[in-house]
Amino acid sequence: METKLEVALLGATGSVGQKFVELLSNHPWFELAEVAASDKSAGKKYFDAVNWVMTSPIPEKAKEMIVQKCEPNLKSRLVFSALDSNVAGEIESEFANKGYYVVSNARNHRFDDDVPLIVPEVNPDHLELIKSKNSSGAIITNPNCSTIGLVLSLKPLHELFGIEAVNVVTLQAVSGAGYPGLASLDIIDNVIPFISGEEGKMESEPLKILGELKNNKFDYAKIKISAQCNRVSVIDGHTECVQIKLKKKTSLNEIIKSWESFSSLPQKLNLPSAPKQPIVYFYNEKYPQPKLHRNLGNGMTVSIGRLRECSLFDFKFVVLSHNTVRGAAGGTLLISELMKAQGYLDKFL
Ligand SMILES: NC(=O)c1ccc[n+]([C@@H]2O[C@H](COP(=O)([O-])OP(=O)(O)OC[C@H]3O[C@@H](n4cnc5c(N)ncnc54)[C@H](OP(=O)(O)O)[C@@H]3O)[C@@H](O)[C@H]2O)c1
Predict the structure, then answer these.
(1) What is the SS3 assignment for 333?
(2) What is the CA angle 162-168-170, rounded to 5?
(3) pLDDT single digits (tens) 148-204
């Protein structure tokens, strides 16, 4: 059997960090060797430092691991970051400067000119940017949790029909705010029509992801996007109501066909976290629903439904994706699997 690559996890005690620990417990290619978090957790056993909120038990091996400080003296050269964005920027740069590959969920470096922002099914080719770097380390980023569902739904349409404009209204789960997140009295029986910084991310990140990498420079997609983001009383799973204007005329059937037949490099390479179908379209007009569909494809499939014509734009539909799996830890793992399958991690083996 092939030896697994040892990996470290920064921000291992947070809600995304815990999802990583869960997903890595049986990973065929990566072995969680080190966990790190803030000074308040460092030096403790993971079991004592973490307030475990996953539904599965803490993996036995992780329980006994001693939480390290987030300092670039860890032995694993591939590092996943689930750090709070208040501290992620500097810490991730320190690791990259010392030759580590950091695959991050935090927003801080997503728009750096030398950092790819990757959804493996959408822009796997953008990874090539890290080959051009002079330094031995690199930061690779995963987009915002609501951007990922949106760009996956847009990718086949942009390729076939060209997207001119998008209007999106989100209904985002409380787990997106981390743990402990919002006070229960604020969110139960309520909708909060503001998530700090979220609308800007949804309006800008898809342009980098759907853009092209030309001579190691990003040529951003020219799409107008308007986003309104709401927090709703759902635990996991972000729902998005999307309206799109296309450059070419098409039909409802053609659009559904483009989603149903969509398959990309992660599926061709049979990566361990790649869902067989990255996109599932539901014909039942009451679907998709977070409670029923967020775990499709082990949380990595994006569900779409309610495609219809739109009197303001051309078409409208509803997208659902799991925010801590596809939108965070699972998405980052898929990026790292793609890197491994394409030889980017050979130097660490
Ligand atoms: N939740 C989601 O759905 C989601 C989706 C996509 C992306 N993200 C992004 O992923 C990251 C993690 O999110 P989260 O929801 O898991 O946040 P969280 O629950 O608040 O966890 C934050 C983690 O950062 C660590 N940390 C805080 N201050 C630190 C410091 N000064 N030095 C070292 N470590 C420190 C914490 O360690 P201690 O426990 O020791 O304080 C904890 O492990 C954020 O950047 C977030 O924006 C989240």
Answers:
(1) helix
(2) 145
(3) 999 999 999 999 999 999 999 999 999 999 888 999 999 999 999 999 999 999 999
Q: Specify whether 251 is located in the same domain as 125.
A: no
Of all protein residues, the one whose alpha carbon is nearest to atom 3 of ligand 1 is 176
Instruction: Please give all residues whose beta carbon lies within 6 A of any atom in ligand 1, as ranges.
Output: 11-17, 37-38, 40-41, 70, 82-85, 87-88, 105-107, 145, 175-176, 178-179, 323-324, 327-328
Contact status, residue 140 vs residue 339, Cβ threshold 8 Å: yes
Number of independent structural domains in the chain: 2
Which residue's alpha carbon is nearest to atom 2 within ligand 1? 176
- Residues 254-290: pLDDT tens digits? 999 999 999 899 999 999 999 999 999 999 999 999 9
Annotated catalytic residue 238: yes
Residue range of the domain that includes 157:
145-322
CATH of residue 278: 3.30.360.10
- The pairing of strands 315-321 and 163-172 is unpaired
Residue nearest atom 39 in ligand 1 by C-alpha distance: 13
Q: Quick one: 182 and 312 in the same domain?
A: yes
Whether residues 173 and 311 fall in one domain: yes
Phi, psi of 251 (to 5 degrees): -125, 165
Residue 145 annotated to the active site: yes
Q: Do 182 and 261 lie in a common domain?
A: yes
What tokens appear for 90 in the block?
């500097």
338 and 304, same domain (yes or no): no
- Residues 33 and 5: their CA atoms lie apart, in Å, by 9
Q: Based on the domain organization, do 84 and 103 belong to the same domain?
A: yes
Q: How far apart are CA 189 and CA 322, in angstroms?
A: 22
